[in-house]
Amino acid sequence: MRIKRVARSVSAFLTQLGAAVVKTVVTSVALGFVVVAVMQYMGVPVPSAHELLGGVKKLAAALS
Fold first, then answer.
1. pLDDT tens digits, one per residue of 18-42
2. From start to end of 1-64, where are the E strands?
3. How far apart are CA 50 and CA 54, in angstroms?
């Protein structure tokens, strides 16, 4: 009985954690689109996704 209670508790925790992660990712993507759209509207040059990934790769190489 105690094992079932622990399993239920862990399952509920993992479900809530998964929901929080999904909400965070969706919110971050939506906010990112809004920020990029506002920057483009204001005329600020926004780098492409390819350029951003290249910068991330260079940063990862420098830190490793």
1. 999 999 999 999 999 999 999 999 9
2. none
3. 6
The token duo for 24 is: 């965070």
Residue 28 is encoded by which pair of tokens?
């971050």
At residue 42, the pLDDT reads 96
43: left (phi over 0), alpha (psi -120 to 50) or beta: left
Contact 5, 11 (CB under 8 A): no
* For the chain, domain boundaries: 2-63
Output the pTM of the full model.
Answer: 0.65
Contact in structure between 40 and 46 (CB atoms under 8 Å): yes
d(CA 13, CA 7): 10
Helix, strand or coil for residue 54?
A: helix
